[in-house]
C-alpha cells in the first residue's frame, strides 16, 4: 500500500467521522428540543453547539461511540474462543470458571 493510498484512506475516515459527529449532534439537538422542554417544566430548547457539547460530555462520562464494547468485547471473545466445549457448557449453565456458582442442578 502506497503512502498516498494510506493517506487518502485516513483522510476519508477522518472526514466521515466529522460528518457522522455533525449529524449525530443535529439529531441530539432535534430530539432534545422535541422531548425535554415538553417533558420537564423549565427546560429550554438548545442550539447546535450546546447539542455538540452535550454529545461530547456524554461520550466522556459514559464512554460511547465504540460500537459493541470496544476492546472489552474483543477480550471477551478471545476468552470465549479459548474455552473448551465443556467450559462453554458450564458457562451456559451459570457457573463460569472463577465466577460465582449459579443455581444448583
Which features characterize this protein?
105 residues; mainly alpha; 2 domains; 4 helices; 70% helix
What do you see in this structure?
With about 100 residues, this protein is an all-alpha fold. The chain folds into two domains: about 1-65, no CATH class; about 70-95, no CATH class. The protein has helices at about 5-40, 50-60, 70-80, 85-95. Helix 1 (about 5-40) packs across helix 2 (about 50-60).
Summarize the structure.
This protein has 105 residues and is an all-alpha fold. It has four helices and no strands.
Write down the overall mean pLDDT.
79
How much strand content do the residues show? under 5%
Look at the helices and sheets and give the structural class. mainly alpha
- The number of helical elements comes to 4
H/E topology pattern:
HHHH
Got a strand count? 0
Alpha-carbon distance between the termini? 57 Å
Radius of gyration: 22 Å
Portion in helices: over 70%
Low-confidence stretches: none
Coarse shape: flat
Tell me about the biggest sheet? none
User: How many domains would you count in the coordinates?
Assistant: 2
Oligomerization state: single chain
Topology:
Blueprint: H1 3-39, H2 48-62, H3 70-82, H4 85-93
Helix pairs in contact: 1-2
